[in-house]
């Protein structure tokens, strides 16, 4: 809606992960370096964790987009809570393996191993990226370890990268995960963006769609945006999209701190008082009286619900705004026609 008004070629702040908009912060560069290192090694597991909305899926898509498909056969799975057999069936389906509705595990494993050997004969490596891996039960993670045992000429035929929220790290610390931990060759955690990175992230996405300093930003506005979004890329996208829409409706080509404050109040109200806590220390203090892992899981669950609610509310508001925009244009056209006559 606002792209034409600001002279942009596309929406700069969409929620869907797009590798074309990949912003390499210090920690994102580190995560990408680990993934690329893992590809070069051709063995072991790489684990990337991070809070909701910190860019894990974008990193995965960016990696896959840069792969040479003649050399690497790769798929990205977004899992729910999958039992081992379900995981194997999903992997087979992702690689296009015809399983003929195989229900027994042994036959399914034979088909997967046949596919891996075929790729090896063709000079292709096979890569599996498992997103939202925190939802996998320990026995399914163990199944991935067993798949890594399939070898040819002392070379593993399948390599797996796991990306997930903080719960994934907790799962991998379990006493029954010792063998899996020994296969991890690198791991990293994605924190929220810092205040300078938040500004760079916003400008990076705007520049990607032809931004010519329209709208311009008051210098102090970036700090306010970071404060509201806590430096979480997905929330930055959601908030800045709302901010651009607000300025478009106000026919304003400059974003001031006052504009950010106005949109921030709407943003907070729409979270139905279920916003993030003001400071990380608040969560730490409250968690002293409870089990840390349980509190963290509950907090992340509430945050996911908030994000889903915001997405739904945003779409409803956009539909209304599009309708109002059409009505205003029709009235303007009628006024112009009346003036001519």
TrEMBL record:
| NCBIfam families found in the cross-reference section | pepcterm_ATPase
Q: Which SUPFAM superfamilies match?
A: P-loop containing nucleoside triphosphate hydrolases
InterPro entries from the entry? AAA+_ATPase (IPR003593), AAA_22 (IPR049945), ExeA_AAA_ATPase_DNA-bind (IPR052026), P-loop_NTPase (IPR027417), XrtA-assoc_ATPase-like (IPR017466)
Top-rank taxon: Bacteria
Q: Where is the AAA+ ATPase domain?
A: 42-206
Q: What protein name applies here?
A: General secretion pathway protein GspA
Q: Name one GO molecular function term.
A: ATP hydrolysis activity
Looking at the Swiss-Prot or TrEMBL record, what is one Pfam family this protein matches? Answer: AAA_22
Species per Swiss-Prot/TrEMBL record: Motilimonas pumila
């Amino acid at each position: 809606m606002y792209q034409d008004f600001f002279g942009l070629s596309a929406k700069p702040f969409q929620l869907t992960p797009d590798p074309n908009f990949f912003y390499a912060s210090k920690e994102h560069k580190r995560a990408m370096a680990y993934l690329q290192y893992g590809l070069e090694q051709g063995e072991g597991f790489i684990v990337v964790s991070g809070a909701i909305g910190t860019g894990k899926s974008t990193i995965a898509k960016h990696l896959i987009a840069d792969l040479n498909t003649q050399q690497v056969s790769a798929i990205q799975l977004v899992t729910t809570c999958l039992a081992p057999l379900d995981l194997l069936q999903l992997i087979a389906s992702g690689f296009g393996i015809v399983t003929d509705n195989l229900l027994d595990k042994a036959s399914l494993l034979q088909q997967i191993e046949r596919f891996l050997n075929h790729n090896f004969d063709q000079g292709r490596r096979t890569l599996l990226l498992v997103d939202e891996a925190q939802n996998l039960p320990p026995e399914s993670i163990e199944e991935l370890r067993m798949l890594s045992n399939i070898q040819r000429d002392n070379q593993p035929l399948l390599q797996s990268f796991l990306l997930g929220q903080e719960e994934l790290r907790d799962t991998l610390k379990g006493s029954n995960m010792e063998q899996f931990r020994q296969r991890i060759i690198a791991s990293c955690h994605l924190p929220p963006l810092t205040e300078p990175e938040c500004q760079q992230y916003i400008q990076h996405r705007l520049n990607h769609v032809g931004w010519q300093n329209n709208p311009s930003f008051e210098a102090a506005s970036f700090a306010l945006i970071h404060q509201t979004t806590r430096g979480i890329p997905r929330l930055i996208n959601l908030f800045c999209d709302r901010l651009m829409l607000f300025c478009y409706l106000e026919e304003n080509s400059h974003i001031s701190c006052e504009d950010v404050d106005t949109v921030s109040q709407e943003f907070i109200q729409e979270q139905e008082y279920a916003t993030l806590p003001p400071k990380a220390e608040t969560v730490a203090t409250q968690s002293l009286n409870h089990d840390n892992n349980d509190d963290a899981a509950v907090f992340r669950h509430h945050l996911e619900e908030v994000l889903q609610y915001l997405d739904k509310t945003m779409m409803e508001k956009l539909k209304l705004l599009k309708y109002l925009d059409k009505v205003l244009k029709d009235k303007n056209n009628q006024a112009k026609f009346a003036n001519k006559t």
